[in-house]
């Protein structure tokens, strides 16, 4: 692959100061020549406005195409329709469409049960205006009853009108290649871009990974645990592991890379430098 399909994921900062810092982070990452940035969305819609503010600030100040993440669980058709109109009016033309997770305490899923219904609704309301990305799970979604059902559910999102997919992060390239092969066998033709999580903090990574079903191979866990509080060694090892993973993905024909930057530029830049050296 030529490295020309890079995207960067950010989460919405809580303050104006945080947004200004994020713009500097994005600017520090221009060396990657990203095609677009995406901005996450909090469970239950708690950061809907912050997602929009962040997207608008990045588009204006950093002059980059931005895709808000939009999750539908707990929402009405009317509220999603209003959000789509706001995005359209703001000149936004990409969306990452998700089901999301039911916030604790919320009982009713709302008008949408699964992301394929959201994708169909976006197409129904706005035609081809938005380029729609959806989530894919090479190691399968933690709630999936089995691998085949999960693949078929992924296919439903593509058939509903998704243009592409970004994967949950993973550390084993074979999981990605096997997923791609299964998708090809099911005649799923959209680009499926691997999501790349730089390793910077073991405790946080272990917590995230347990929650989202991403497997940290034993050898990586053991090495990270052995570094204890030695942040520098964790980072150096993490950069090596993830650079290697990216290289395997590129060599195997991945159609791009989507970096979960965690709003930091240094780890992603270090991986990028390794890939280009
Ligand atoms: P779906 O595709 O709806 O799948 C959810 C589960 O339901 C799966 O087990 C699937 O097999 C099953 N399923 C799907 N369709 C059907 C159907 N029609 N019938 C029966 N079962 C079905 N979360 C956030 O809160 N905010 C974010 O910004 C965010 N960004 C993300 C970005 C990426 C790239 C990824 C990979 C994940 C992101 N998430 C985010 C996490 C995501 O919200 C959770 O993983 C959530 O549990 C599932 O969302 P989904 O869109 O994949 O759901």
What topology does this entry show?
Blueprint: E1 6-10, H1 16-28, E2 36-39, H2 48-61, E3 66-71, H3 77-89, E4 94-98, H4 115-126, E5 131-136, H5 147-159, E6 164-167, H6 173-185, E7 192-193, E8 195-196, H7 202-212, H8 218-226, H9 231-251, E9 257-260, H10 266-276
Parallel strand pairs: 1-2, 1-9, 2-3, 3-4, 4-5, 5-6, 6-7, 8-9
Bound molecules: flavin-adenine dinucleotide (FAD).
Flavin-adenine dinucleotide (FAD) is lined by residues 40-41, 43, 69, 71, 96, 98-101, 114-116, 135, 141, 143-144, 149-150, 153, 156-157, 166, 168, 195.
List bound small molecules. Answer: flavin-adenine dinucleotide
Q: What about the largest sheet?
A: 9 strands, parallel
Mean pLDDT: 94
Radius of gyration: 18 Å
Q: Identify low-pLDDT runs.
A: none
Number of strands: 9
Structural classification: alpha/beta
| Helix and strand pattern | EHEHEHEHEHEHEEHHHEH
Number of helical runs? 10
Q: In which range does the helix fraction lie? A: 40-55%
* Beta content: 5-15%
Shape: globular
N- to C-terminal distance: 15 Å
User: Which strand order does the major sheet show?
Assistant: 7-6-5-4-3-2-1-9-8
Tell me about this structure.
It is built from ten helices and nine strands. The chain is of the alpha/beta class. Strands 7-6-5-4-3-2-1-9-8 form a nine-stranded parallel sheet. The chain is globular and about 50 Å long. Flavin-adenine dinucleotide binds next to strand 3, strand 4, helix 4 and helix 5.
């Amino acid at each position: 692959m030529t490295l020309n399909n890079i995207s960067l994921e950010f989460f919405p900062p809580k303050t104006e100061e945080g947004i200004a810092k994020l713009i500097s982070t994005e600017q520090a990452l221009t060396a990657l020549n990203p095609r677009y940035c995406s901005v996450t969305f909090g469970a239950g819609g708690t950061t809907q406005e912050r997602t929009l503010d962040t997207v608008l600030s990045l588009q204006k100040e950093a002059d980059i195409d931005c895709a808000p993440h939009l999750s539908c669980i707990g929402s009405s058709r009317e509220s999603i329709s209003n959000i789509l109109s706001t995005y359209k009016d703001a000149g936004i033309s990409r969306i990452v469409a998700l089901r999301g997770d039911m916030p604790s305490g919320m009982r009713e899923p709302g008008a949408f049960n699964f992301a394929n219904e959201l994708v169909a609704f976006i197409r129904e309301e706005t035609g081809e205006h938005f380029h729609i990305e959806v989530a894919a799970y090479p190691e399968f979604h933690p709630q999936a009853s089995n691998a085949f059902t999960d693949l078929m559910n992924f296919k439903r999102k593509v058939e509903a009108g998704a243009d592409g997919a970004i994967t949950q992060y993973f550390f084993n390239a074979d999981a990605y290649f096997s997923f791609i092969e299964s998708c090809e066998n099911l005649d799923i033709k959209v680009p499926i871009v691997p999501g790349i999580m730089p390793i910077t903090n073991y405790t946080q990574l272990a917590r995230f990974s347990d929650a989202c079903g991403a497997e940290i191979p034993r050898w990586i866990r053991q090495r990270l645990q052995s570094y204890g509080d030695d942040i520098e060694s964790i980072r150096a090892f993490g950069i090596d592991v993830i650079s290697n993973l990216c290289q395997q993905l590129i060599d195997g024909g991945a159609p791009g890379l989507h970096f979960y930057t965690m709003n930091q530029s240094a780890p992603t830049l270090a991986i990028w430098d390794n890939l280009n050296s």
